[in-house]
Amino acid sequence: MASRLKKPSLSLAGLSTLCFRRIRRLFLVVSISGLALAGCGFEAMYRADNLRTDILSELAVPDSRLGRQLERALRGRLVPSPDAPWSATIVLEETRENMQLDSQGVAQRSRLSHRLTLTLKSSRTGKTRVVVFQEEQFFDRGNSGADEMARVRALRALAINQLTDKLTSFLQTLAPHPEPAQTLADKS
């Protein structure tokens, strides 16, 4: 006697039932994991907090492609305040260096370097301070020029984002620290 095993149906109804079961299972797993994470106090962090507004009175960014990218990345994260203790000037440089050349002298690997030079000037003392941040990425030569240009654009955007993070982290260290609250014992 032959066994009667059910074979999966390849009809439209059979496929929709199979997909619906998987989607329902996935929805259930996501829902339960979301509840479990919410129960333990997990909060998603989408980006770092904005900088305090009392750090920079002015920020001069170069009017170039890199400068406009940096300005867009800083928008919303850094708001100058007129009575802040520092004014800043930024210089951005991008260099591309061929690293590995083949027998015909064509570069097979390149290095893309980005350098951000931050010059801070104190509004109280007039002294200046220069800080340099750098990012380097390496990439292989693509099959087409358009592919290589897209790769360079993506690496440039990544470098600008990383330089923005470094810059905002450094500027946060310049924030004036609030005075500690005095206790009643200190006042007497």
Instruction: Please count the helical segments.
Output: 4
Low-confidence stretches: none
The helix/strand order is HEHEEEHH
Structural class: alpha+beta
Gyration radius from CA atoms, angstroms: 28 Å
| Average of the residue pLDDT scores | 78
Shape: flat
- Helix coverage percent of residues? 25-40%
What is the CA-CA span between the terminal residues? 101 Å
Describe this structure in words.
- The chain has 188 residues and is of the alpha+beta class.
- It is flat, with a radius of gyration of 28 Å.
- The chain has helices at residues 12-39, 65-74, 145-173, 184-187; strands at residues 56-60, 86-101, 107-122, 128-140.
- The chain has a four-stranded mixed β-sheet with strand order 1-2-3-4, covered by helices on one side.
- Strand 2 (86-101) and strand 3 (107-122) form a beta hairpin.
- The longest helix has 29 residues, at 145-173.
- Helix 2 packs across helix 3 (145-173).
Using brief descriptors, characterize the structure shown:
single chain, 188 residues, alpha+beta, four-stranded mixed sheet, flat
